[in-house]
Amino acid sequence: MADGSSSSSASLGHLVTVEEEEELVYGAESGWVEARTSCDHLGSLTSDLSHIPTPNTQCNRCNNPNENWLCLCCKDVFCSRFVNKHMLEHFQQTSHGLALSYSDLSVWCYSCDAYLDAQVIPQLRPVYETAYILKFGQPPPFRTS
Ligand SMILES: [Zn+2]
Ligand SMILES: [Zn+2]
Ligand SMILES: [Zn+2]
Q1: Residues 66 and 79 sit within 8 Å (Cβ to Cβ)
Q2: Of 14, 72, 74, 118, which one's alpha carbon is 20 to 30 angstroms from that of 7?
Q3: Phi, psi at residue 125, to the nearest 5°?
Q4: Number of H helices, E strands in the chain
Q5: 111 C-alpha vs ligand 3 centroid, how far in Å?
Q6: 128, pLDDT greater than 70
Q7: CATH superfamily to which 40-136 belongs
């Protein structure tokens, strides 16, 4: 009995569709916003950002417990536009337009209507670092300069 099997499995190459490309375009439209590396409103930052409230500080107005914003002009804490919009309200009443998110540590400028890159802008980097340490208990993984 000779085993004469010589079956060779043919490998069928699957064609790659162009769906991925479409997704990229869609993603650019709907999701990713590039943070600005400069802002004309940094002059309104409070001079002492070395001591800031802890990330679990409640909203000054409605006591919302977390995911709040820190006003970088007066260090008050307010809730986001997804809660009761108290940070937005604070900006409208005081023109304090620079705020740091305690949920993801991003910095938003209401006047520019844009995110700011806190790791690049020298005036924002110290407070970003302070907030990061408060939130995670260790300094952020910056490149050593
Ligand atoms: Zn609130
Ligand atoms: Zn303020
Ligand atoms: Zn700005």
Answers
A1: no
A2: 14
A3: -60, -45
A4: 3, 5
A5: 5
A6: yes
A7: Zinc/RING finger domain, C3HC4 (zinc finger) (3.30.40.10)
pLDDT at 141: 85
Q: How far apart are CA 113 and CA 106, in angstroms?
A: 13
For 93-106, the pLDDT digits (tens) are: 999 999 999 999 99
Estimate the share of the chain in helix, then strand, then coil, as percent rounded to the nearest 5: 25, 10, 65
Instruction: HSE, CB side, 13 Å, CA atoms: give it for residue 129.
Output: 14
Distance of CA 95 from the midpoint of ligand 3 (Å) = 11
- pLDDT class for 27, splitting at 50, 70, 90? very low
Going from N- to C-terminal start, the domains of the chain cover 40-136
- Gap from CA of 100 to ligand 1 centroid (Å): 15
- And the tokens for 95? 């023109």
Rounded average pLDDT over 96-124: 96
- pLDDT tens digits, one per residue of 76-86: 999 999 999 99
